[in-house]
Write a structure and sequence with these properties.
- About 60% of the residues lie in helices and about 10% in strands.
- It is an alpha/beta fold.
- The protein has a single domain (about 1-140), classed as 5'-nuclease (Rossmann fold, 3-Layer(aba) Sandwich), CATH 3.40.50.
- A 5-stranded parallel sheet has the order 3-2-1-4-5, with helices on both faces.
- The chain is globular and about 45 Å long.
């Protein structure tokens, strides 16, 4: 199973320059994708922002939201459940150790902390700084 951040997940549902790579990666990981509550919130919000920015119509956003929800309830997305205190502790450690030299944002660090707490080893993202940090902490970065 892989951990996917929101940049990767959004590319699965809304066509963008990374959609082909995201779909190809999913096809090679048939054991599914771990979905944190953080990623879920960010993805659902990204769909709503797409309406605000005029990239999709409201009816398309509703269909994509429904598909995303369905994929998280028996599809290829597997919701992760863990204590937020543990995530924040790991994220604080990552921030203290790397942010001054890597420039990562808090939510990017939180995604990596979620992957680590879930003991996953593969991390999917299109965010270059986040990919670099994931690699620094020993995660295999895809695509």
């Amino acid at each position: 199973m892989i951990y996917a951040d929101s940049s990767f997940l959004v590319s699965l549902y809304l066509r963008d320059g990374n959609s082909r790579a995201a779909r190809s990666e999913i096809e090679s990981h048939t054991d599914g994708v771990a979905l944190s509550r953080l990623a879920g919130l960010e993805v659902r919000n990204a769909f709503r922002l797409a309406v605000f920015r005029g990239w999709v119509e409201e009816d398309q956003e509703r269909r994509v939201q429904s598909l995303f929800e369905s994929d998280g309830c028996g599809g290829f997305l597997y919701p992760l459940v863990f204590a937020s205190d543990e995530i924040f502790a790991v994220a604080e450690h990552l921030s203290r150790t790397f942010t001054a030299t890597s420039g990562n944002r808090s939510l990017d660090i939180m995604h990596i902390a979620c992957a680590q707490v879930a003991e996953l080893t593969v991390f999917a993202s299109f965010d270059e700084r986040q990919r670099k940090l994931a690699s620094l902490v020993g995660l295999q970065v895809v695509p």
